[in-house]
Backbone:
């Protein structure tokens, strides 16, 4: 009975979401095929209908996947994901295995010295496409090849989303805040003496407001695995797509999280409410901060009364198709690491917060005017550092577990390269390989 | 073609295609345009050196500074022409011309001993001393029939480098 109901709702959401996926043509950028209208009308029609057919077919196939998944059938991966995998492989191996480049044998000649084509090829490849920028690409809105019957339906969708859903959600959120503040402020001020009770109530209230937030975007979150419990000497790590990751996890368990201090209203919330749950702040731009933060982390983990600690080791928001390298800070605390994998369903809305392009407020508004935020959260088996494993290897192993569970790819780049240049040691490694091969071949006669 | 955020019409694509001698298909040009717009974050119509260097794979390349001099400030048409040397369909002389331009940093049509040494220095970094580079270069140049004072022209480069093993192919991903 429940399954049929969920299937029916999936059908409803799927159809309506197909409309949501396509943005209006009220943008300055005309797409290629619209421009072709000026030149070759026939070609436009042919291309346009092919595009529409592919869109419908691909959405249709995704719909069947959802349907069958809901009824418990296992499905093999879609063809498109295999294509993406092949595209990824050459780049990663190029980076990781620089010493496996085949060494041509024989005497060193002028031709070999002048031939810089492998290096140029790598540079050209990086200009054309690179695995790092791909991690931060948000889903571009597809050009809407609208016909007579699709446009009105899309318009109806917009009216429903902005006119009906959005006000209802704002109402729910406001209600939630009123309830939360009217309970939180008294509890915080009046129960100063009874710490244990106060903490318990504050935890419950934070979970409540997070549930209201999730409801305000019609969040459909499926939690898999055993719920986290508060024990000392354990940290939780998760992949990071947006600040809403924290809200989604917080609604189930009141975590203490380590975050970058933000400006504006978010900062205000951070310093008042989240402080009570035990959050730790850091500043990305301060390097001295690292030792202080490491010490705070260790103290928090060892305290038996503190809320379980949640860390996002990527250090930055990634677009939920890839994971960047995990920072080792969470893995050298000497405690058990419990991985959490989060995967958003992109059909419904792209939950990736591209902090370079939009503020958090805009991001929230975008979520509130979409149909739903659908995601899966997996609480995975706690991991301990194996004997002889370095923290970096441990971090990579956990990243592998999370990526495998969420079905996303790994990329060997540090997330902070968003803000800074790569360290010279990568270039030096290439230079060293070149120098050594030249000198070696010089000696071969 | 105006600023990068402007439209890419069928006429524009055909114009660009003509400019690069039909080496790229129309779909590849559309892909390259998307990539150009992605890299040109402030929509100026060209990609600045800083924006190129924000691609870590490019920044760690030993020849990145030399290539930057060649690609900095190019508009989209010239960007495609630059990348056409990496097309599998590009002719061998075209690829060798790109290599020649990387060496010939002062664009005088001649590559001197000093130019080659500078490139080798970029490629080997601090792992080979200047003396070592000079010795190696003198030795191989003598074996090829050149000496320290000779300067190489494009024809010489074609003569030296033209062999089937020279592969400089980059595939443009087409969604």
Residues:
């Amino acid at each position: 009975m429940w399954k049929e109901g969920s299937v029916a709702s999936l059908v409803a959401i799927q159809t309506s979401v197909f409309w949501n996926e396509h943005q209006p043509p009220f943008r300055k950028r005309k797409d290629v095929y619209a421009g072709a209208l000026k030149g070759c009308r026939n070609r436009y029609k042919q291309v346009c209908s092919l595009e529409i057919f592919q869109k419908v077919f691909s959405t249709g196939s995704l719909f069947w996947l959802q349907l069958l998944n809901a009824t418990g059938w296992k499905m093999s991966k879609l063809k498109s994901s295999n294509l993406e995998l092949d595209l990824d492989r050459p780049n990663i191996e190029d980076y990781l295995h620089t010493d496996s480049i085949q060494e041509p044998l024989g005497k060193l000649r002028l031709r070999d010295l002048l031939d810089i084509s492998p290096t140029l090829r790598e540079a050209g490849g990086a200009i054309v496409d690179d695995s790092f920028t791909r991690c931060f690409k948000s889903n571009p809105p597809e050009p809407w090849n609208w016909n007579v019957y699709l446009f009105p339906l899309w318009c109806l969708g917009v009216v429903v989303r902005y006119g009906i859903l959005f006000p209802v959600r704002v109402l729910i959120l406001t209600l939630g805040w009123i309830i939360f503040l009217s309970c939180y402020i008294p509890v915080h001020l009046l129960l100063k003496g009874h710490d244990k009770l106060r903490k318990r109530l504050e935890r419950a209230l934070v979970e409540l407001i997070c549930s209201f937030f999730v409801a305000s975007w019609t969040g459909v979150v499926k939690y898999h695995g055993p719920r986290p419990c508060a024990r000392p000497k354990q940290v939780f790590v998760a992949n990071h797509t947006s600040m809403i990751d924290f809200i989604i996890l917080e609604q189930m368990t009141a975590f203490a999280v380590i975050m970058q201090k933000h400006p504006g209203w978010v900062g205000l919330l951070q310093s008042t409410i989240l402080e009570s749950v035990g959050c730790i702040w850091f500043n990305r731009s301060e390097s001295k901060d690292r030792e202080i933060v490491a010490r705070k982390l260790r103290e928090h983990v060892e305290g038996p009364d503190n809320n379980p600690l949640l860390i996002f080791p990527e250090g930055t928001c990634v677009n939920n198709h890839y994971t960047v390298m995990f920072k080792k800070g969470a893995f050298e605390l000497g405690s058990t690491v419990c991985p959490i994998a989060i995967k958003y369903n992109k059909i419904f809305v792209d939950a990736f917060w591209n902090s370079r392009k939009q503020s958090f407020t805009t991001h929230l508004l975008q979520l509130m005017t979409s149909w739903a935020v659908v995601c899966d959260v997996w609480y995975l088996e706690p991991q301990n550092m194996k004997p002889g494993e370095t923290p970096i290897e441990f971090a990579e192993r956990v990243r592998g577990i999370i990526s495998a569970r969420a079905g996303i790819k790994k990329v060997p780049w540090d997330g902070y390269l968003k803000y800074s240049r790569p360290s010279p040691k990568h270039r030096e490694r290439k230079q060293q390989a070149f120098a050594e091969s030249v000198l070696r071949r010089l000696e071969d006669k | 073609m105006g600023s990068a955020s402007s439209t890419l019409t069928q006429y524009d694509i055909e114009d660009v295609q003509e400019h690069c001698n039909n080496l790229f298909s129309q779909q590849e040009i559309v892909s390259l345009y998307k990539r150009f717009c992605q890299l040109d974050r402030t929509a100026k119509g060209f990609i600045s050196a800083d924006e190129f260097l924000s691609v870590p794979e490019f920044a760690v390349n030993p020849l990145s500074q030399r290539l930057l001099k060649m690609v900095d400030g190019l508009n989209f048409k010239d960007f495609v022409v630059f990348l056409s040397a990496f097309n599998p369909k590009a002719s061998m002389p075209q690829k060798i011309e790109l290599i020649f331009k990387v060496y010939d940093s002062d664009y005088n049509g001649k590559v001197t001993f000093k130019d080659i040494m500078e490139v080798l220095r970029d490629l080997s970094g601090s792992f080979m001393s200047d003396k070592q580079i000079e010795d190696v270069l003198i030795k191989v140049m003598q074996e090829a029939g050149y000496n320290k004072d000779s300067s190489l022209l494009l024809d010489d480069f074609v003569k030296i480098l033209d062999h089937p093993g020279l592969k400089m192919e980059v595939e443009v991903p087409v969604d």
